[in-house]
Amino acid sequence: MTLQQLKYVTTVAQTGTISDAAKKLFISQPSLTKAVRELEKEMEITIFERTNRGIVISKEGETFLGYARQVLEQAALLEETYKKKAGRKQEFCVSTQHYSFAVNAFVELIEQYGSEKYDFCLRETQTYEIIEDVAQMKSEIGILYLNDFNRTVLEKLIKEHDLVFTELFVAKPHIFVSTKNPLAGKKSVTIEELEPYPYLSFEQGEHNSFYFSEEIFSTVDRPKNIRVRDRATLFNLLIGLNGYTVCSGVIDEELNGENIVAVPLEAQGDMHIGTVTHKKVLPSRLGAIYRDALVRYTQNKI
């Protein structure tokens, strides 16, 4: 097994086809196919399953590619350190629920890293996908919350995927509403007071169960429900429809705008927000910078 072979298979996975990967790597398609097959034979695994529609990454291939990306990153870091070379683009990915502090920490990471060459990814995505991304090492860090309701289910999944949850902070329940909403000026609100207003939440795709909900009190029956995929849409609807969402209460005016405010919700329940990482992966330099930024930003807000 060589670093070149690892670069080959990660490029195939990134492009999705042998032909596109061959063009990107400046080698012939037969040579690339041969190199991939030789690596699969040597490691005694099937990284890519061949179908009539092309190639598909196998389950064991996902795990192998996760390790391959880690090895390539460390090799690039060695070259950068000892050969005084710029090396390849540094790659780093975070998968998170929709938290403004995760975005702020990501900005801080890029400012601290300060290189002209990087390939970073911030995925605001669904709860189950966060766990899968970290398990398959597509993302080094995941960010989600646990509480008394979802803890048993999510901790089981986290353990099954060889992951570990590390708490960042504990948040009390709040709601986000528009500054024009009649509830915006109150010191706190009850669940009963929210009934006339549309309830906004993030949909969870195939895993749209109460346990994977990004909002606590997901089992409460509400007469008006709207599910969305992204934070910008949710905030636009908060303002346009005078709706609300249940949240951690951590808000940033620069990211969320001056028209959204957080109001404490009178209800029992805490959100234990933290990071999810892989047990078998050592933190990278970028991962350490990002986690430090998360800690600083959340400590300032809570």
TrEMBL record:
<dbReference type="Pfam" id="PF00126">
    <property type="entry name" value="HTH_1"/>
</dbReference>
<dbReference type="GO" id="GO:0003677">
    <property type="term" value="F:DNA binding"/>
</dbReference>
<dbReference type="InterPro" id="IPR036388">
    <property type="entry name" value="WH-like_DNA-bd_sf"/>
</dbReference>
<keyword id="KW-0238">DNA-binding</keyword>
<dbReference type="InterPro" id="IPR036390">
    <property type="entry name" value="WH_DNA-bd_sf"/>
</dbReference>
<dbReference type="InterPro" id="IPR000847">
    <property type="entry name" value="LysR_HTH_N"/>
</dbReference>
<dbReference type="Pfam" id="PF03466">
    <property type="entry name" value="LysR_substrate"/>
</dbReference>
<protein>
    <submittedName>
        <fullName>Transcriptional regulator</fullName>
    </submittedName>
</protein>
<dbReference type="GO" id="GO:0003700">
    <property type="term" value="F:DNA-binding transcription factor activity"/>
</dbReference>
<comment type="similarity">
    <text>Belongs to the LysR transcriptional regulatory family.</text>
</comment>
<dbReference type="GO" id="GO:0032993">
    <property type="term" value="C:protein-DNA complex"/>
</dbReference>
<dbReference type="InterPro" id="IPR005119">
    <property type="entry name" value="LysR_subst-bd"/>
</dbReference>
<keyword id="KW-0805">Transcription regulation</keyword>
<feature type="domain" description="HTH lysR-type">
    <location>
        <begin position="1"/>
        <end position="58"/>
    </location>
</feature>
<keyword id="KW-0804">Transcription</keyword>
